[in-house]
């Protein structure tokens, strides 16, 4: 029992001593925290520098600086929108959208299934009440009606845009029927419009080729510029054994490179800068055939490699005869003036002598070797370039006409010498003798008997010819008579005739022979 009591007492002592100790420890910790907070507030806070990730593009944008107290943020940023119309145009734009920045991409179609497969681009469906979410079935009229139905919605696509690039594969219903309506609305909205079109393969049939040609004729008048790429030209880039998907993506990749070079040329600064105002100058006009090409050259010194810029295997035409040229050269810090001069000389020799040429030069830190050139040429004068996309027509050989052989010139005949003039005698025409008119032998109050009637041989009276004035009755010199003179002559003739008639009034028995 004693042991139990001792244990209880010890426990009570411990509890008594612990309570005040715990209170003291808590007070100290609270005081330390307050002191620590005051010290932390007094210390200056250091900002940590965070490095931004490098841009994927070859050129880097510079931050806007203040010049003369004015910020460069007030400069208008060019707005570019790329619109793919139809199934083919939509697939091209959806593939390009994943590679290019600084532009807005839209895919417009009547087919709901085709729109669901697009990625990284805005979707725009039109003609829902006409097609019910299906395609046009290669009917151009259905595609045109579908676009006209949603005119007000289409207008909103072009509002506030500086330049619109329309991409379409001609030959179908939505592309060939809807593209002219989109282009017309874009023109009325006041923004620059540039069209990129592809034409069908030969194996797709002649009907589809005719649809593409008719559609292009309608679209031309509503565009500032347009480029045409026949699908048949793809065989000059790839092997014929290449799969279809890889072959079509090769065209898309080439188009993406061209558009990327054009957008970089407008947005990014350089030693000699190009902006939207320069592009607007070159694209000004209506229905200009345009050549757009972007090429990276490793050896700019060689002339063969430089000619790739001027002539592309995708286009059935070159920059020959172009009236407006805009090109940009981008290289590293070691870019030489001789290289720029050679490139510029080849481009200027290929275009029209009176062409308007604008060029720019830029430098990139990331570019180690070679030069990147983007060339835009408008007004390329070529006839019949669409013939390559359609069926081949047999060439008719024209028969050459034989050239006439040069004949020897006849010797000039000697001119006859002038002979002395001989005076010829004047021929005097004899004047005709005018016979006096025979007067009647009638005596007043006496009858005249005709001779011969006394012997019983009476002669029949013969009518005498009427007297008519002739040239023989007048002199050689012709006189001009007035009306009074002519009237007097006529009266004299009548008087003579009356006298002759009176002579025949007496019977033949009483007529006598005049002695």
Describe the overall structure.
There is one protein chain. Helix 2 (86-97) crosses helix 7 (173-189), helix 6 crosses helix 7 and helix 7 runs parallel beside helix 8. With 515 residues, the protein is an alpha/beta fold. It has helices at residues 2-42, 86-97, 112-116, 128-131, 140-149, 151-158, 173-189, 206-220, 244-267, 276-283, 303-310, 337-350, 483-503; strands at residues 66-67, 70-71, 80-85, 104-109, 122-125, 163-169, 192-199, 225-230, 288-297, 324-331, 356-363, 371-378. The chain is elongated, with a radius of gyration of 56 Å. The longest helix has 41 residues, at 2-42. It has a domain at 442-458 and 483-515. It contains 13 helices and 12 strands. A 10-stranded mixed sheet has the order 5-4-3-6-7-8-9-12-10-11, with helices on both faces. Strands 1-2 form a two-stranded antiparallel sheet. Belongs to the FtsZ family.
Primary descriptors:
cell cycle; cytoplasm; about 525 residues; single chain; alpha/beta; ten-stranded mixed sheet
Quick recap of the structure?
Homodimer. Polymerizes to form a dynamic ring structure in a strictly GTP-dependent manner. Interacts directly with several other division proteins. By secondary structure, the protein is an alpha/beta fold.
For the biggest sheet, the summary is: 10 strands, mixed
Silhouette: elongated
What share of the residues lie within helices?
25-40%
Total number of helices: 13
Radius of gyration: 56 Å
Please report the distance between the alpha carbons of the first and last residues.
234 Å
The share of residues in extended strands comes to 5-15%
- The secondary-structure element order is HEEEHEHEHHHEHEHEHHEHEHEEH
Strand elements, count: 12
Organism: Candidatus Nealsonbacteria bacterium RBG_13_37_56
GO molecular function, one term: GTP binding
GO cellular component, one term: cell division site
InterPro entries: Cell_div_FtsZ, FtsZ/CetZ, FtsZ_C, Tub_FtsZ_C, Tubulin/FtsZ_2-layer-sand-dom, Tubulin/FtsZ_GTPase_sf, Tubulin_FtsZ_GTPase
């Amino acid at each position: 029992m004693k042991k139990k009591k001792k244990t209880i007492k010890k426990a009570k002592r411990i509890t008594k001593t612990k309570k005040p100790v715990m209170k003291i420890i808590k007070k100290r910790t609270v005081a330390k925290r307050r002191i620590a907070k005051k010290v932390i507030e007094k210390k200056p806070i250091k900002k940590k520098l965070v490095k931004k990730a490098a841009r994927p593009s070859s050129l880097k944008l510079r931050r806007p600086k203040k010049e003369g107290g004015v910020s460069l943020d007030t400069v208008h940023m060019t707005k570019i929108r790329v619109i793919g119309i139809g199934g083919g145009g939509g697939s091209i734009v959806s593939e390009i959208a994943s590679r290019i920045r600084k532009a807005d991409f839209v895919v417009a179609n009547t087919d709901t299934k085709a729109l669901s497969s697009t990625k990284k681009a805005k979707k725009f469906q039109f003609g829902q009440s006409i097609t019910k979410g299906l395609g046009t079935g290669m009917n151009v009229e259905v595609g045109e009606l579908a676009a006209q139905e949603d005119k007000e919605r289409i207008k909103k696509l072009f509002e506030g845009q500086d330049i619109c690039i329309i991409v379409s594969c001609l030959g179908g219903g939505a592309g060939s029927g809807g593209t002219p309506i989109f282009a017309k609305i874009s023109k009325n909205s006041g923004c620059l419009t540039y069209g990129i079109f592809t034409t069908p393969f030969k194996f797709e049939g002649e009907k589809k080729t005719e649809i593409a040609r008719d559609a292009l004729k309608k679209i031309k008048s509503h565009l500032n510029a347009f480029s045409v790429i026949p699908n048949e030209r793809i065989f000059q880039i790839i092997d014929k054994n290449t799969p279809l998907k890889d072959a079509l993506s090769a065209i898309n990749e080439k188009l993406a490179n061209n558009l990327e070079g054009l957008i970089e040329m407008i947005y990014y600064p350089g030693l000699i800068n190009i902006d939207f105002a320069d592009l607007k100058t070159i694209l000004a006009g209506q229905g200009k055939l345009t050549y757009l090409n972007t090429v990276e050259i490793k050896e700019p010194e060689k002339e063969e490699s430089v000619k790739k810029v001027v002539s592309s295997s995708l286009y059935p035409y070159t920059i020959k005869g172009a009236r407006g040229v805009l090109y940009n050269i981008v290289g590293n810090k070691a870019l030489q003036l001789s290289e720029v001069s050679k490139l510029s000389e080849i481009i200027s020799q290929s275009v029209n002598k009176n062409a308007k040429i604008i060029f720019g030069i830029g430098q990139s830190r990331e570019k180690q070797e070679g030069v990147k050139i983007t060339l835009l040429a408008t007004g390329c004068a070529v006839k019949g370039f669409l013939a390559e996309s359609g069926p081949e027509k047999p060439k008719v050989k024209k028969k050459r006409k034989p050239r006439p052989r040069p004949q020897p010139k006849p010797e000039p005949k000697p001119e006859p010498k002038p002979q002395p003039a001989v005076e010829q005698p004047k021929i005097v025409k004899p004047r005709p003798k005018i016979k006096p008119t025979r007067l009647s032998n009638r005596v007043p109050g006496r009858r005249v008997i005709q001779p011969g009637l006394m012997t019983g041989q009476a002669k029949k009276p013969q009518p005498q010819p009427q007297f008519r004035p002739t040239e023989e009755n007048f002199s050689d010199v012709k006189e001009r008579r007035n009306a009074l003179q002519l009237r007097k002559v006529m009266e004299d003739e009548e008087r003579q005739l009356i006298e002759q008639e009176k002579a025949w009034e007496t019977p033949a028995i009483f007529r006598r022979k005049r002695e």
